[in-house]
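Hi R.,

Here's the chain you asked about this morning:
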Amino acid sequence: GINAEYGKQWYQRRVRGVLNYYTNYYYKSNLRFMTFIDESNGAAARPNSVALYNPSLLEVKSRYYNDVRRYTIEKDKIGTLENFIIFVTDMHRIEDKCVLVSYTDPIEKDELPITNNNNLQKAVSTCKSMLRVQLYKQCDADLMYQKLQSKQQERKLNALHISAPKEFRQVSAVVDADILPQWKRRVKLLKHASDKPLGFYIRDGTNVSVTDSGIEKKPGIFISRLLPGGLAESTGLLSVGDEVLEVNNISLEGKTLDMVTDMMIANAQNLIITVKLQRASLSR
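And the predicted structure, written out as tokens:
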């Protein structure tokens, strides 16, 4: 029992010692990621190690058609675009150094060309955790720029989409505007088989009007409230205080509030109401 316990403790100390050794070794070597991944053939070598962050190193993932590589490079040794191209082409074992380079913008996800030192510095400064670059042959220059333009056009189309007129849903219409006087309005409310309410309340009241014989008072039905965001308010054609004169071309003269309410509910899916505008009458 004692020997077994001693052997277990010795094994644990041994494992900790090995891990500390490799951790200190890689830390002193200033490696940001202690792995090198070659994705060209789908294989990845990942030794048992601890990932250490080093701000002076830049992780790069480059693609040369079907050949994909992932590696790190010291930022202060990137230098000019020419030096960067030499380094990247060496990683892909490309003999011809005359290649075109682009990178993926981490914010807009656009593929942008790297044609000078300023473009390269912008690509390095804007990348968050990894610089993703693409390499193209000189003979495929048209292919690269066509690919860049198509992605930019696709992004513009996705950013703003305006529906065709047939896709808009009409919620109201003004009826017989050319034959009605200015103080009267006939409005058609369209629910389109929706359960959404009409969005207004009515009350009974008295209409006070001035005639040649003097002041005349008549009972009437008036709009008392518009629900915020409701169908009636969204039309902008009805207001609180408007007197309802007709429902689907049926006069409301002599009808009670309950009768008018039943008429509106029965015709709710295709309701046409004729109102006397509030500014043309005095109600109480």
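The radius of gyration is 38 Å.

Let me know if you need anything else.
M.
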